[in-house]
Write a structure and sequence with these properties.
Layout: H1 18-49, H2 54-62, E1 64-65, E2 74-75, H3 76-101, H4 108-133, H5 151-161, H6 167-191, H7 198-203, H8 205-216, H9 222-239, H10 244-253, H11 271-295, H12 302-309, H13 313-341, H14 351-360, H15 366-376, H16 382-405, H17 407-418, H18 428-435
Antiparallel strand pairs: 1-2
Helix pairs in contact: 1-5, 1-6, 1-11, 3-6, 3-10, 3-11, 4-6, 4-13, 5-16, 8-9, 9-10, 13-14, 13-16, 14-16
Length: 436
């Protein structure tokens, strides 16, 4: 398959190494649990927002806490978007850095596929959104809403309909979502910063630099690192740049390996793996579900309200961007990558598998809701929430249908990838790949 004789064309998607496959499996297990909690939070918010006690939900979202002197007297909804999602992006930044420094994506040929797919999955839905909403006053601000992929939501869907999805496709989905998150944070920083204050932004470099020095020296003491991280976050927030950017900056400062020299006396894993192990459960189990709970609640107003919402070009643009634009962009970019690199799909996979995965990537829940709030303001994005929820649910259902068609094939591949006849703890297929 991927690691066979050099005379074969490179596989467009392959299962990778056993070390990477085992790591990805552990990550996805945690994210799947987080996805279930995310769905519970979102459903609870929707039920509460459409109940006779809807006013209590809005009151809770608007409760303000925090020191006014530091300009941090924020609503709970704002704390969830600015604070909790900084943890989410910190973990995403750690994962992205690890993939490209020590993971299978060190190989540019392997990295090219998910990077190209992520770019295609951003450009095409944004273009479709702008095409549908052209001429609508103020609609252009929301062009980035349908560009995101929610890995937790997608994995919650896979837990139900795609438990036997091959390792290659799971790895591709995870890497695509991580690159997607990085693109999203760049978009947020560049296009959703209304008032930039250079002084706090420059001041943030001091605690960030000290944080970087400490983690490079493998300092783990929370009482040293946490105040510095909070200082970076607060200063970035004060600068006008969205505070979640601080999470990515802090993640990129954390070393993935202890020494850049592979054979050096200090060679070994850096702190990135340690921090990811500690913070991923917090991100998946607390940060994202709480954000979903405080952001997803929208009063639908019955069938008449839904019909009115879908009469809004912004709603149609977001939904079409997620359900049509996202898979179209990913498929087109992947096909072009295959054409120009002369790579073929792995012998066990077909373009139907890529289509199912591309449609699944149209689930754009968490970051889409965040960008919707940044584009139109908290409380002014009710129709956007309807669009994101409807588009994400539609993408999940379509992906379920497509992937279920291939479930028998996936079961066969799963049996192959888990068979360990010599009982050495490493599935035989990875050993045969290595020998080949």
């Amino acid at each position: 398959m991927t690691n066979s004789a050099p005379s074969r064309q490179p596989a467009l998607l392959g299962r990778g190494s056993w070390t990477e496959a085992r790591r990805v499996t552990a990550i996805l297990r945690k994210e799947t649990v987080g996805g279930a909690l995310l769905l519970i939070g979102a459903v609870a918010a929707m039920i509460w927002a459409n109940s006779p006690w809807a006013d209590a939900y809005e009151w809770l979202r608007d409760v303000h806490v925090g020191p006014e002197a530091l300009h941090l007297n924020l609503s709970l909804a704002a704390w969830a978007g600015d604070g909790l999602l900084a943890i989410f992006f910190f973990v995403a930044g750690l994962e992205l850095k690890r993939e490209f420094v020590a993971g299978d994506l060190r190989d540019l040929r392997r990295a090219a596929v998910p990077i190209a797919a992520a770019l295609g999955g951003v450009i095409v839905p944004a273009a479709l959104y702008l095409l549908i909403t052209q001429g609508v006053a103020g609609a252009g601000k929301g062009w980035a809403i349908p560009t995101a992929t929610d890995i937790a939501f997608a994995l919650a869907v896979l837990a139900v309909i795609g438990r036997f999805l091959p390792t290659a496709l799971r790895t591709f989905l995870l890497t695509l979502a991580v690159v997607d998150d990085l693109i999203a944070i760049v978009i947020i920083a560049l296009f959703y910063t209304d008032h930039l204050s250079p002084v706090p932004l420059l001041a943030a470099l001091a605690p960030l630099a000290l944080f970087a020095v400490l983690v490079q020296r493998r300092v783990r003491s929370w009482w040293l690192l946490l105040p510095l991280a909070v200082a970076v976050w607060a200063l970035v927030h004060a600068s006008g740049v969205h505070a979640t950017v601080a999470g990515v900056l802090l993640a990129f400062a954390v070393p993935v390996v202890r020494s850049e020299k592979a054979g050096g006396p200090d060679a070994g894993p850096g702190l990135a793996e340690h921090f990811e192990h500690r913070f991923r459960p917090l991100s998946a189990g607390v940060a994202v579900p709480v954000f979903a709970f405080l952001s997803a609640g929208v009063a639908l107003g019955g069938l008449d309200g839904l019909a009115g919402a879908f009469g809004d070009p912004i709603v149609v643009g977001v939904a079409v961007g997620l359900v049509v634009g996202k898979p179209l962009g990913i498929m087109a970019a992947t096909w072009l990558t295959a054409r120009f690199t002369h790579a073929d799909l792995d012998e066990d996979l077909t373009w139907v598998d890529m289509l199912g995965l591309s449609v699944l990537a149209g689930i754009g829940f968490t970051v889409s809701l965040l960008i919707g709030e940044l584009a139109f303001g908290v409380g002014a994005d009710e129709h956007v929430k309807v669009a994101v929820l409807a588009g994400s649910v539609a993408a999940a259902l379509l992906a379920a249908v497509i992937l279920r068609v291939r479930n028998r094939v996936y079961r066969r591949i799963h049996e192959l990838e888990t068979a360990d006849h010599d009982h050495d703890g490493v599935p035989d297929v990875y050993e045969s790949d290595r020998v080949g």
